[in-house]
Request: fold
Amino acid sequence: MKYINRHWKDKANSTWMLVCTGIIIVLPFVLIIGLYLKSALLFEKCSFIDLIFSKEWKPWENKFGFAPFIICSLWVSILALLLSAPVCLLTAIYLTHYAKSRVLKIMQPVIDILAGIPSVIYGVWGILVIVPFVAKLGNFFGIHTTGYTILSGALVLSVMIIPFILNVLIEILRTIPEELSEASLSLGATKWETIKYVIIKKAFTGIISAFGLGLSRAFGETIAVLMVVGNVVKIPQGVFDAGYPLPALIANNYGEMLSIPMYDSALMMAALILLVIVILFNTASRMYIYRLEKYR
Amino acid sequence: MEPSGKIKIQNLNLFIGKQQILKNINAEIPENKITVILGPSGCGKTTLLKTLNRLTDLYENIKISGTVEMGNEDILHTKTDITKIRRKMGLVSQRPYPLPMSIYGNIAYGLKISGHTKKQFLDEKVEYYLKVTHLWEEVKDRLKQPASALSVGQQQRLCLARGLAVDPEIILADEPASALDPVSSMAIEELFTELKSWYTIVVVTHILRQAKRIADHVIFMYLGEVIEQGPAGEFFENPKMEKTKAYIKGAFN
Reply:
């Protein structure tokens, strides 16, 4: 009797776990299907390719071109990654290979604090500090700008994604066995040569995935970016131009424009595009890692 | 007076934090012989080995006093160019850690770092040292493949070849057979015996039988101290200290 009871419990528990895992697997598909159904109205009227590549955003004329938003989002997040990736990599190397372990212990909570700051606070900080700074920088180069630019968005974002990238990088660098460094050092390599030729090479796939994660985070970040980026619908020509990223489009307009069915549908479409691009980033970096690992 | 050994260790004390790992070590490592540092786990053998090429630099909170002399240089002196010293000592670690590159790349790495870039020179060296370690026949058709694809035993021989390629005078081996199957570990032992005419070899082990098979000279350690040292025959046949007798009988390990 007791045995049956235990056996039954065992079965029940494993079933629950399976159900939970199932929910998590289904979730993204439910999201995509939901967004697709909501944006179906727009799909009926216009072709997908037109929507993606068209530059015209005139909702009152039923012209919905997403190109300015997509391109602006790409600008902001790639620029943010370019700014923060080297800083993160050098910091992670320093913390794991040069600093005393006490320094890492102090840094860890600092990184967590950075990660925990609400994004609206980053936005306010951006308006107060980064926007005026970028305006001055623009003037220095002889460009007249208010400071509400792609560059401001990228700068704010680059700080926001630091903790995510840095934490992953530290974890990855710590998994590399010390004996590997010892092997390289005993062949007469200096510490820097060891890091350059051995440690980074060994950690390369991990480093790429850390950057991929940062890029995905940057791409989806909404509030802080929309507060400093200017929100002007146009294809940016340079970093001192204003722009209008995808998430900002949704956040700024959702709720107000629901009375216009096409507009509502267009915003859902924007959400769908956002989701798909983030998934593409993730898949691409995953495939890249898979390929590298196979040939290593 | 000229030091008679290849390496001469004098009054070596080593602390990590407050814990004393090595206690007043005095020892000599003779040239062109296999010296086995023998002793139970945790007695400081590996730390002593790592002191010889100052890999102890990687440890935190470490305090060393005493001297380790090779030729006329004090290895422990902070002014000593440690990369040059390390190049004179090939390291073979407990498990093989191939560098994340090809089989060829692993052997060429040390040479490239010391400034050799000519392909022909590198090719010759790679072939030569793969032959020395009896790997050439097994890997000659796949030199460009990642070293991680080799078996553990092959990797260990590759790591040895990699160390030999930078033309060291000394080979330091830290329980080189502990991760290997009996056949591979025999292969490594035989290699050491072949190589000792050209190199001074230091092997750390806690396996008594292995020590008996390969040692010419033994340094026996217990709890951070050198208990007894001397030529292998004398050490195993006629040990002087009680601790040594007990250890050789297998009373503890």
Remarks:
- Chain B is about 35% helix and 25% strand.
- Residues 38 and 220 of chain B are 5 Å apart (CA to CA).
- Chain B has a mean pLDDT of 90.
- Chain B touches chain A at residues 50, 53, 55, 58, 60, 83-84, 86-87, 89-91, 93-95, 97, 99-101, 109-110, 113-114, 146, 148, 159, 162-163, 166, 172 (CB under 8 Å).
